[in-house]
Design brief:
The longest helix is centred in the middle third of the chain and has 33 residues. About 11% of the residues have low confidence. It contains eleven helices and 14 strands. It folds into three domains: 150 residues, tt1808, chain A (Alpha-Beta Complex), CATH 3.90.1570; 81 residues, no CATH class; 108 residues, Replication modulator SeqA, C-terminal DNA-binding domain (Up-down Bundle), CATH 1.20.1380.10. By secondary structure, the chain is an alpha+beta fold. Helix content is 40%, strand content 17%. α9 runs parallel beside α11. Strands 1-2-3-4-5-6 form a six-stranded mixed β-sheet, with helices on both faces. It holds the Pfam family HSDR_N.
Amino acid sequence: MGIEQDIQAIRAGIKAGRFSNEASVSQGIVLRLLNSLGWPAYDTDAVWPEYSLSGRRVDYALCHPVGRPIAFIEVKQIGQSDGAERQLFEYAFHDGVPMAILTDGREWNFFLPGEQGDYGERRVYKLDIVDRDVGECVERLERYLLHSAIASGVAIQAARDDYRSVSKDRQMHATLPKAWNQIIDEGDEMLLEIVSDRVESLCGFKPSPDIVAAFLKERLVRVSPLAPRQIQSSPRMAIQSAKPAEEPSRVQIARSTPVYAPRPSSADQGQIGFMFHGKFHPARNAIDTLRQVFDLFIETDASFGERFAGLPKHGRTRRYLARNPSELYPARPDLVSECSIKLDSGWWMGTNHSKQTIAQIIAMACDVAQVTYSRDLVTSLGE
């Protein structure tokens, strides 16, 4: 009888209630599957029952070479395995065993005790041999427990690869709220452009970046960090989802002053423009403020334009300052004619920016000019 037939028979026995205690699970399920996986299940030097360490006993130690444990199996009565991870981890840590398996016959939990995280995060895979497809049960049991794979080290490496895959996915999942909140807070240019273009396609009029940014800040929501979740398993993923991820809690985003837009503390506070070394430079609007800052820095230092334009990163899909207007919007040449102006110095500057982006550009310019933003140069870009 092959392992597929053994699994089918075990499933039928579980459903019929034939494995009523821990001993029946050990004899009728665990040893039967180990035998199908190539282990000499009744050779106590290879499958060591009641393995003793420091006065404690683990149900089975899988040994390779003979007498040297490479994996521990702790067996519980069906439905009674919750909370047994701590005991199993203590066994594995004490003996330096790389893999630990907790099972009640129906659920098989594969752990790497030496990795990082809590018990759940160090679980490589959770397999329910009743609910899961027989083919997947065979694949996972052979991936982690096949005797030849254990003996060659392939099984332990496969478990580590799967752990890293799950860990990476978990980190990405946890970082998504942070990324979304930054997009909202910073008035991401690409998002503003997408919304602006869609409005234009629907009504024929294109809103300014500031109008779109204000709308998004009023309507979009920030999200709180997502609680850790289990990842749904696939043929190459390593952990089965026990339940769907909960809906993240949400709170309305509050209106706030842009991060890079401190206000001048002078009599000119109500005006648009910027204060530079104690002198206020009035401007018509935020774009005119940016134009004047660029002109001032270029006039003060002829190398400023080249150094700013040479920064490796401006916007995600655009340049803020360039010798040629076609370089400002490489992905959107249609914006060049309407959204660029030529400075007194001959350089070209893009104008399709929200106030928040303008404040960020001025902060970048101050860094290049070695001017302390918000101290030596303070902007007032209007509401």
